[in-house]
TrEMBL record:
Residues 310-334, 363-384, 483-543 are annotated as: Disordered. Its EC number is 2.7.11.1. GO terms for molecular function: ATP binding; protein serine/threonine kinase activity. Residues 372-381 have a biased composition (Polar residues). Coiled coil: none annotated. It comes from Prauserella muralis. Keywords: ATP-binding, Kinase, Nucleotide-binding, Serine/threonine-protein kinase, Transferase. SMART domains: S_TKc (SM00220). This is non-specific serine/threonine protein kinase.
Length: 543
């Protein structure tokens, strides 16, 4: 067993033990090469394994570490490296000082529906990105959801995740995951799928509101919990308020009837923003790929909202006027006189409109108004130059005028809160654009900036900003850091006569405050993640 001070894989100096479980130990460590704090998950060899089984377990851990490293999202704990020490795997991850949702529920009590929606939207965004990459988490639960002091949420422990289609080498009969948050099909022996992650997230949010997961908990009898889960009967939540219908959709016994993670994210963001979450009683999960619903299958997709990650939204929007659909099976056909009544009214209105047009054109001569026609929206389309201009204007206001800069942000970045945004920019002395904004997509702009922090550090960053169109006005709605380098100020010279030797890099505060970039940004670097070069992460400062 390793101890504090040990150097693992010739690179990671252990500083503090963060936790342990049946599969291994998690340490806070210092990456000696990059001079940043990291979390190191040291996997342990399970007792009783044959050499062949032990080698399979090692290969599985290394493979799953590489799978998890494919995921880059602001709301997921990043995997930086996969290595070995004494023949056992190491997963080197982003260090994120935070409390788990499980700890918060015990220490602070249950969440409100609005807070639950805020947390759930961030987790759903990370799961949607994982599902797009072919990764299923398999163990979404309160203990794997981390929340920082400034309300940034990240989901961790993709350690038991599997790539879709990846060949499992686990021993048969081993249950990986937490039964209380399983989807019914998992309890019945079906393989995990993105829809089962959605169910587990719904169960987690249910527990945050009700105090217990949908099927209860029994640490001493997992089989009893599995039996209840397999039955799939969920009692409606009593404290969910505007989240009730969405939770019931996410907890639908039939996987095909659940929303996708992306749809759930949009609906949760709607509730967090004080809007209704429009959900269907039917198959939301099929809404992204199926044609318009026909006989017996009228569905209403979740209302699409601006995507915080800047990813294109492919779900169909809710139409202002419902499209004509065939009458569902078992629904009585409207009486004939009702149809004729509507038809007659339509004819009267049409004749009146035609009469008005004829009167206007015949009596007005050359000066008469032209016939009424449907005019297109006069709003000028947003051009690539408009996007670049908004980005330039945004950085020109910082750091002196964060209030004006805030007006350039869309709902995705405003979710962090104005106070946190302003608090961060008070730690910045100056901003210099080192690489002019350039368009990299229909709604994305890349820019390079140098920040001089008030503590003397210099931070050079390359950002890719996603913009949304708000009635013809572009707003910055997502921020991905493509590259980041931080240069610390030179230490003061030692006092005369001092012969102290330089020690290893001092640990950052472990009080959940992160480093200087932490509060108000919502990015990986500002939560104890240090200098992540080429690691993607949405930044809550909106730049």
């Amino acid at each position: 067993m390793s101890e504090i001070g040990d150097l693992l894989a010739g690179r990671y100096r252990l500083r503090r033990r963060l936790g342990s479980g049946a599969m291994g130990v998690v340490w806070k460590a210092i990456d000696q090469r990059l001079q940043r704090p990291v979390a190191v998950k040291q996997l342990l060899q399970q007792p009783g394994l044959t050499p062949e089984r032990a080698e399979e377990a090692r290969q599985r851990a290394m493979r799953e570490g590489r799978i998890a490293a494919r995921l880059h999202h602001a709301n997921a704990i990043a995997v930086h490296d996969v290595d070995e020490h004494d023949g056992l795997p190491l997963l080197v991850m982003e260090y994120f000082p935070a409390r788990s949702l499980a700890e918060i529920l015990v220490e602070d009590g249950l969440l409100t529906p609005m807070d639950t929606a805020t947390v759930g939207a961030q987790v759903a965004a990370a799961l949607a990105e994982a599902h797009d990459a072919g990764i299923v988490h398999r163990d979404v639960k309160p203990g794997n959801i981390l929340i920082s002091s400034d309300s940034v949420v990240k989901i961790g422990d993709f350690g038991i995740s599997h790539a879709t289609g990846d060949v499992s080498v686990t021993q048969s009969g081993v249950v990986a995951g937490t039964p209380a948050y399983f989807a019914p099909e998992i309890a019945r022996g079906r393989p995990p799928a993105p829809s089962s992650d959605v169910f587990s997230l719904g169960a987690t949010l249910y527990a945050a509101l009700e105090g217990v997961p949908p099927f209860g908990e029994d640490e001493d009898n997992s089989l009893a919990v599995l039996h209840r889960v397999a039955a799939g009967e969920v009692a409606p939540p009593q404290h969910a308020g505007p989240l009730t219908e969405l939770l019931l959709a996410m907890l639908a016994p039939d996987p095909a009837q659940r929303p996708t993670a992306r749809q759930a994210e949009r609906a949760l963001r709607a509730v967090a923003g004080g809007e209704p979450a429009l959900v269907a009683a039917g198959a939301l999960a099929e809404a992204e790929t199926e044609p318009a619903a026909g006989v017996g299958a009228q569905t209403v997709p979740v209302r699409p909202l601006p995507d915080a990650s800047g990813t294109r939204l492919d779900v169909r929007p809710v139409p202002d006027v419902p499209a004509a659909v065939s009458a569902p099976t078992g629904t009585a056909t409207p009486p004939p006189h009702r149809r004729w009544g509507w038809l007659a009214m339509g004819i009267v209105l049409l004749l009146a409109a035609v009469g008005g047009i004829i009167a206007a054109t015949s009596s007005g001569g050359d000066n008469a108004a032209p016939p009424l026609t449907s005019t297109p929206n006069s709003t000028r389309p947003v051009t690539p130059a408009d996007l670049r201009s908004v980005v330039s204007d945004y950085y020109a206001l910082l750091p002196e005028r964060p209030g004006r800069a805030w007006e350039h942000l869309g709902p995705g970045l405003r979710a962090q809160g104005r106070e946190a945004f302003t608090r961060y920019w008070r730690t910045v002395a100056s901003v210099t654009v080192v690489s002019a904004p350039r368009n990299t997509g229909d709604r994305t702009v890349q820019i390079g900036v140098e920040l001089v922090m008030k503590d003397g550090a210099r931070v050079t960053e390359t950002h890719q900003l996603g913009l949304v169109d708000a009635d013809g006005r572009p707003l910055i709605d997502s921020d991905t850091v493509l590259h980041r380098e931080r240069t610390e100020p030179a230490p003061p010279p030692p006092p005369p006569g001092s012969d102290e030797k330089a020690d290893e890099p001092k640990d950052r505060k472990d009080d959940g405050q992160g480093d200087d970039e932490g509060p108000g940004r919502g990015d990986d670097e500002g939560k104890g993640n240090g200098d992540n070069k080429d690691e993607k992460g949405n930044k809550g400062k909106g730049n």
